[in-house]
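Chapter summary example: a protein plus flavin mononucleotide.
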Amino acid sequence: MADPIPSVAPELITAFKGAMRRLAATVTVISTGDGSERHGMTATAVTSVTTDPPALLICVNKTASLHPVLATGTRFCVNLLKDSHAEVAGAFGGRLQGPERFGTGDWASNAHGVPYLTDAQANLFCRVDALMLYGTHTIFVGLVEDVRLFGDISPLIYQDGRYIKAS
Ligand SMILES: Cc1cc2nc3c(=O)[nH]c(=O)nc-3n(C[C@H](O)[C@H](O)[C@H](O)COP(=O)(O)O)c2cc1C
């Protein structure tokens, strides 16, 4: 068990946020569902963990509506957005609420009922294999069960608080 998280000076938090604004990241939408319900949210805190087995991690705020669903150990999909998906990122980032979000973009469901964005650069179908609580967030490790690639590599990138296209 890690030591309790210490309190830090506000200036350090401001500087940290300033540094993170310089950490460009591909925008994703994490989606989950069981055929009857669908949930999803925009996320950039997504990182590869291991290749064998193929695994990735996602950091999800405990206040996010997706959080309690993932905490059940469900299957989910990481949809890597492409540069034309700023509308999708906005909808799943809080502009729309609940299942209404799936009205933006072209969504289908796999055999397990997990929704995926059909024209995402890639869909990584995972199931929750481990989790770690840390402060305001939970780090979920997703064991990748299937991957679908689509089209060219053309990521939607989030940097300095806005969406940009890779040049
Ligand atoms: C570009 C972008 C990246 C985001 N990355 C994350 C992330 O990695 N983890 C997270 O918990 N929330 C992230 N968010 C915030 C959630 O998408 C947002 O709070 C969402 O509304 C949460 O879902 P809810 O409204 O259903 O609770 C991000 C938002 C944006 C716009």
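Key point: Residues 90 and 119 are 17 Å apart (CA to CA).
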